[in-house]
Write a structure and sequence with these properties.
single chain, about 300 residues, mainly alpha, Hypothetical protein af1432, 2 domains, about 0% strand, globular
């Protein structure tokens, strides 16, 4: 069985023997196998059934607004978020909205669907607090920013294989592999503080410290949650230039990730991603001018979702 280090092991040889730690701050404390990370993933709570049920209803042209609102009312947390968003200044309603049905009408099916998805994964990001390089609620802010970027780009440029709503979910889920590793990021905070403030450096450090990077762990989470294959592929490929070159969808998510990191959204400070962004726009089929033009729209949409959370 392949060795997976989650507590400071150095690179593992093909024969399974661990080499010396890569840095003095790491310690040879425990040796993990593939079963250990699998167990950590299996401990993750499943995605709420509300998500699947509501997405099915929202995608079904025969569903009535009463069908949809009846399902929303069974989830108090989702109901609260929906009403909070509908009553935000963004929509400028003259009277306070207290009915779920009216909130869905004001928001529209697209925003309602996205809010359902965002609410479904919110609790999973709660463990990712006080992790170096991410600000308060940083992981969630970053994932929402990537989701809104993907949706907005799909609305303006079209993505063919994905609807704008599916693009939103793709961006929202791209970093789920970080969730099972949250505690280990904290344990190795000193190592990440010493690394360059750069995505490639952090990815290399993950693989050195943990024996696996968060994209690969994300693929395991996608399998555990039984996500569609297209989501699994972009989750595992969003740090792989070859995967981005082979798939416009993966390229879009990769571009969105680098854009959000370059602006420091969710981060303690921005990463330098300008060179990567320049190379990714062509792979994603969007122009640099479009990315610049939609930035204010993305900012407004992001704040809208954050008000509901």
């Amino acid at each position: 069985m392949s060795r997976i280090r989650l507590d400071g092991y150095g690179p593992t040889t093909r024969g399974g023997t661990a080499s010396a730690p890569a840095a003095a701050s790491t310690s040879l404390s425990r040796c993990y196998t593939g079963r250990d990370i699998d167990q950590a993933i299996r401990k993750l709570p499943p995605l709420p059934t509300t998500l699947g049920d509501l997405v099915d209803k929202l995608n079904n042209p025969d569903s009535s607004i009463r069908d949809i609102t009846a399902r929303i009312r069974t989830d108090p947390s989702l109901t609260t978020r929906l009403l909070r968003m509908a009553n935000s200044a963004f929509y400028g309603t003259r009277t306070y909205i207290t009915e779920v049905e009216r909130a869905v009408i004001v928001l529209g099916f697209r925003t309602t669907r996205n809010l359902v998805a965002a609410a479904a994964v919110a609790s999973h990001f709660s463990a990712f607090q006080n992790v170096y390089s991410f600000g308060a609620q940083g992981m969630y802010r970053h994932s929402l920013a990537v989701a809104v970027f993907c949706q907005t780009t799909a609305l303006h440029a079209g993505m063919g294989a994905l609807t704008p709503e599916e693009a939103f979910v793709a961006g929202l889920l791209h970093d789920i592999g970080r969730i099972p590793l949250a505690q280990h990021y904290k344990e190795h905070r000193a190592d990440f503080e010493q690394a360059a403030y750069d995505l490639a450096a952090h990815q290399a450090l993950e693989e050195d410290l943990f024996g696996v990077g968060h994209p690969a762990v994300g693929g395991m989470v996608a399998d555990h949650w039984k996500l569609p294959g297209i989501y699994r592929d972009l989750i595992t490929g969003h740090h792989d230039r070859g995967a981005a070159a082979a798939s416009r969808v993966t390229a879009l998510v990769t571009l969105a990730d680098r854009w959000a990191n370059g602006r420091g959204i969710g981060r303690a400070q921005p990463f330098d991603t300008a060179a990567e962004i320049d190379g990714l726009t062509g792979l994603a089929g969007v122009s640099p001018a479009l990315v610049q033009d939609i930035a204010p729209e993305i900012g407004r949409e992001l704040e809208l979702y954050l008000t509901a959370m």
